[in-house]
Each structure stands twice: as structure tokens, then as C-alpha cells.
Amino acid sequence: MEDVSAASIFSLTSTQQGAIGESVAATGLMLASGGRLSPFRPIADDDGIDLLLVDKLTRSIVQLQVKCRTRVDDPKAETVQFDVQLSTFAQGARGYALGILLNGASVRKAWLIPLSKLRNVARASPGKLVIVASAKDHSADRFRRFRHDGFEPVVRVILGNDMAVSTSGRARPVGE
């Protein structure tokens, strides 16, 4: 009898990838902000908002829609596709769509796109907005300006660049 590993039989469902992405985003942003960002999950996320981030310093709230991939869709081009359903798209919300490409349990790349700009940069398709972004370090695709190598630069964008990351990796307010 042939030995078949569980990995060759099973693969993560899109629901599982979404749950992993939300968990990774919540913990990663909390760590990268040194605890300044406190993530909350809505009881129902039917409006497309997966996490609410509370800035404990300013008490402002940022809405976040999280999309997660565990591998590139096109290995040669190193592209990933994230779809945002129009039925749950929070048009005009103060927040972001966060696409995460994982490398195992680590973040390989992250794309943080303001929801206010999403319609302008994503490709419209029936019922959804499509983001096809390159994970290549030197790509100059339309999503390059939103691409980050980890959560520290994502936190700086979310907080409006009023955070500095110390050499220990713990974020702190500028001037501290």
C-alpha cells in the first residue's frame, strides 16, 4: 500500500485561509505596533469588515478587510489574486483592504490598499473587484506602492507614520 501524506490529500479551503489571514493580521499588527493597535472582530462580518483596529493612543478606529493566500497563483510571474466582493465592499469606509501572502506561518508580502482607492486600482469584474499583484521584490506593477515586506511598514501607514520601530522590533511613538 502506498504511503500518502495528509498534505497530498487535503488543502486549505478559502474559509480556512481567511481565518488564518485574519488571525495572522490581528496578532502581527498588534505585535508590530507594540500593543498600540488593538484588533477586534465584528460579530457579523457581512459588510466586508473583518477586523476593527482601535488605536489605543488616539482612540480612532480603522476598518480592515483581510484577504489571505498561502501560495502564489502563477509561480513564474509570482502573482497572487485577491477578490473583494462588491456585495460586501465598504465603499467610502475609513479603512483598508489587506492582502497577505504567507510563506508557511510567516508573512512573505502584504498589500495595504486604502478602501477609498480600491476601485481605482483593482480590475472590475462581475460582482467583485480583482487585485492581481506581484510578489516579486523588483516588480513595478500597479500595486507596488501598496506592497510591504512585513507588518511594521503596514502599521506605519495605518497610524499615519507617527510610529517608529525600535531596534528591538517593538514599535513606539516617535519622540519617545
Brief sketch in words of this structure:
The protein is of the alpha+beta class and 176 residues long. 22% of the residues lie in helices and 35% in strands.
Q: Can you characterise this structure?
A:
- With about 180 residues, this protein is α+β, with helices and mostly antiparallel strands.
- The protein has a single domain, classed as 3-Layer(aba) Sandwich (Trna Endonuclease, Chain: A, domain 1).
- The chain has helices at about 5-10, 15-30, 115-120, 150-160, and strands spanning about 35-40, 50-55, 60-70, 80-85, 95-105, 105-115, 125, 130-135, 145-150, 165, 170-175.
- The strands form three sheets. It has a six-stranded mixed beta sheet with strand order 1-2-3-5-6-9. Strands 4-8-7 form a three-stranded antiparallel beta sheet, covered by helices on one side.
Order of helices and strands: HHEEEEEEHEEEHEE
CA radius of gyration is 17 Å
CATH topology heading:
Trna Endonuclease, Chain: A, domain 1
Measured between the Cα atoms of the first and last residue, the distance is 64 Å
Helix content: 10-25%
The CATH architecture can be given as: 3-Layer(aba) Sandwich
Show unreliable segments: 164-169, 171-176
Strand order of the largest sheet: 1-2-3-5-6-9
Give the class-level CATH name: Alpha Beta
Strand content: 25-35%
Global structural class: alpha+beta
Which term fits the overall shape?
globular
What would the average pLDDT be, to the nearest integer?
86
Number of helices: 4
Task: Report on the biggest sheet.
Answer: 6 strands, mixed
Q: How many E-type strands?
A: 11
| Total discrete domains | 1
